[in-house]
């Protein structure tokens, strides 16, 4: 079996800041990996480079598709990259507004992504949108309402439904529960966990929240100053952190 995604020797600087400094990371099919680290450590930059949204200055990203062919993500033509993002990948943003179209109804947000992936039959698309609203525990009777009528947590559920309706193989998430109330976060994390397990998704997600990493991730990658300082199985990294920086990170959470 080959990894589903491989970042090889990635580097990216912003002026004097090394946001990524020779980072390599592989993600395996069905694996959930959390990228943790303090603010400014390069987590979002790594996610965006791996997701093809930002060009690295060195290194490359390989995606192994369902047929086993390796594709160099940053060498794809724009149209090919967009097809990949619609068909095989999903991206869940921290701010639901970045992942939703606020002028389109809730059901339309889900249906639109199905149409972009080739769905044509209006009745089937509407039925799928209703089914996905139920799966993310939203009331399908509200599918014609605009996203702004829903709370932040519900908007995030809608963004997840929009992302998963096309059954991607690989999902990127940038702080998917960031900015929400603690009780809302906990329910959303539970939902994400059950959907990810049920669909067998490979997920790469960025979080500040060590508890979220423990709940969702099989493996944890710890970043500092643009480098990976430690990685390993989630329980091992959190219960027996080896790098002093990870020890501080875990201890600061326990103390909080
Ligand atoms: N577009 C940009 N222009 C200039 N500097 C940037 C840009 N994007 C990121 N940086 C810098 O690169 C470094 C890594 O940023 P990044 O956003 O990847 O960190 P992060 O770990 O995701 O932080 P946070 O948790 O606060 O989102 C930081 O020093 C940041 O200021």
TrEMBL record:
Ranges of residues in domain ABC transporter: 5-250
SMART domains assigned: AAA (SM00382)
Alphabetized Pfam families for the sequence: ABC_tran
Keyword match ATP-binding: yes
Keyword annotations from UniProtKB, A to Z: ATP-binding, Nucleotide-binding
GO biological processes: organic phosphonate catabolic process
Keyword ATP-binding listed: yes
GO molecular function: ATP binding; ATP hydrolysis activity
Taxonomy, superkingdom: Bacteria
Protein name: Putative phosphonate transport system ATP-binding protein
């Amino acid at each position: 079996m080959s990894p589903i995604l491989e970042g090889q020797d990635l580097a990216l600087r912003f002026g004097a800041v090394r946001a990524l400094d020779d980072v390599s990371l592989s993600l395996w099919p069905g694996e959930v990996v959390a990228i943790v680290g303090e603010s400014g450590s390069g987590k979002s930059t790594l996610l965006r480079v791996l997701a093809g949204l930002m060009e690295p200055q060195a290194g490359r990203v390989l995606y192994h598709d369902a047929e086993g062919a390796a594709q160099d993500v940053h060498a794809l033509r724009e149209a090919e990259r967009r097809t990949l993002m619609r068909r095989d990948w999903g991206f869940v943003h921290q701010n639901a507004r970045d992942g939703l179209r606020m002028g389109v109804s809730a059901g339309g947000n889900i249906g639109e992504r199905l149409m972009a992936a080739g769905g044509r039959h209006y009745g089937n698309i509407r039925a799928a949108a209703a089914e996905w609203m139920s799966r993310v525990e939203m009331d399908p009777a509200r599918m014609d309402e605009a996203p702004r009528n829903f709370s932040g947590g519900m908007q995030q559920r809608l963004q997840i439904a929009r992302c998963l309706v096309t059954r991607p193989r690989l999902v990127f998430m940038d702080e998917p529960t960031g900015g929400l109330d603690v009780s809302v976060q906990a329910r959303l994390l539970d939902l994400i966990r059950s959907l990810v397990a049920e669909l067998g998704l490979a997920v790469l997600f960025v979080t500040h929240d060590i508890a979220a990493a423990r709940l969702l991730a099989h493996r944890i990658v710890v970043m500092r100053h643009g480098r990976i300082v430690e990685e390993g199985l989630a329980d091992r990294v959190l219960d027996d952190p080896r790098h002093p920086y990870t020890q501080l990170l875990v201890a600061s959470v326990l103390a909080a």
